[in-house]
What does this fold into?
Amino acid sequence: MPAKVRIPTPLRRFTGGSEEVGAAGATVAAVVNDLERQFVGIKDRLCDEEGRVRRFVNIYLNGDDIRFLANLETAVKDGDELSIVPAIAGG
Amino acid sequence: MATVHGLRCRECDAEYPHEPLHVCEQCFGPLEVVYDYGAIQRVLTRELIASRPRNLWRYRELLPVTRDPIVGPHSGFTPLVRADRLAAALGVEQLYVKDDSVNHPTFSYKDRVVSVAISKAIEFGFDTVSCASTGNLANSVSAHAARAGLACYIFIPDDLEQGKIVGSAIYGPRTVAIRGNYDDVNRLCSEIADKYRWAFVNINLRPYYTEGAKTFGFEIAEQLGWTLPQHIVVPTAGGTILPKVARAFEELAQIGLVSGPMPKIYTAQAAGCAPVVRALHRGADLIEPVKPETIAKSIAIGNPADGYYVLKAVRDSGGWGEAVTDEEIVSAIHLLARTEGIFTEPAGGTTVAVTRKLIESGRIPRHESIVISVTGNGYKTLEAVSASVAAPFTINARLQEFDRLYDTLDPQAQTRGAAARP
It folds into this structure.
């Protein structure tokens, strides 16, 4: 069973409206590449030309911000939950 | 009079209609309101402002509402206190405290942003309002929702101060406490906002919500007689207020209500949660998130999405920023209370302590005008100071006992002021 990825509203037009999809990969970077393979064009929304996560995108692995882990090199296991969330905070 | 053109992405300039949207579909950047400044300038004069009630709606053409204000009729127009005793204690000449600790109805600056957000929620036809909060926002959303007759859900970290928890629950919302920190709450709420059709004031209504923060700056300018201070110190949590206070001063200049140089703006954070100050001191553009660990819970946001805009506003203004320890924060709360009779919560203590640090390090010149932004009320966070205030003397109801007590006390201590302890 691959990883589960939560897709925020602005990206659902790439996934045909799906809010949760499966994607495979040993690292977050690999999962992003698998998302691109399945839903062409989605990677450009998430990463810049140098392959870094865009400033206003937060990616969480099982609830943890990957910036507290190993960023795109964070290891991903089958069944893990990834969440892509636009970076809006304050309160 | 409608003065709003629509929304625009702050990062890539993509345009969007005047709807409850908050994220750019192209780059995920935040959206902001676009105004028709030409139309505003023709209408909004100093005289018109002065003729209006003393609340934040007196600047309404610069706020994104299209109807007469629906909520917050007594919000805003809080005192700008000339703080001469605090000035003397800090060794400066011209010091003011903008005192949102007495904002209506919930005693924090949040009543500004919530008044605007809930007005928009009603305009857009939402029946349920919500927020992710470190306390003050939940208080404000709950109170305004109650007065407007809207359903309300609030989401908080499960370790908030008692005053903040009870201070929301009393208005009757559904309260959901999350086992985690504010950043965990916020992430969850982004997902909930995506799924449920609720007006999350600081998520899907964010572009409108943040506009309310400008009124903090408009009022300071008006209360100083339509002039701008030379320095202003602002606490930074999620990063909403500081950039919008800068924007407020720019807009007033743009429509000709003030002139002269823009103030230098300083960001104030707690050492236990200072991602923006850290990036500022390193000269970095990218803010690295932190795990907060501080008594200043209301500003304990380790992942401030508007942090980048705080850095930009601070740097563009020629300002700076500092972080202070929990001990310095508590000491500053005492100092402000003893010199000016204002009781603020740790966020306000942070701002006073950072102002002291900036003055002592020479960043802020001692003869120039300074405004300290007090954004919340100490009565809601008694835990922060209850261990450091003097306990009462307890005696029986006999004059001789009081006489004996009085003989042991130093009468000079009461009049010496801030530095003294009984």
Remarks:
- Residues 25 and 31 of chain A are 5 Å apart (CA to CA).
- Chain A has one domain: 3-86.
- The mean pLDDT of chain A is 90.
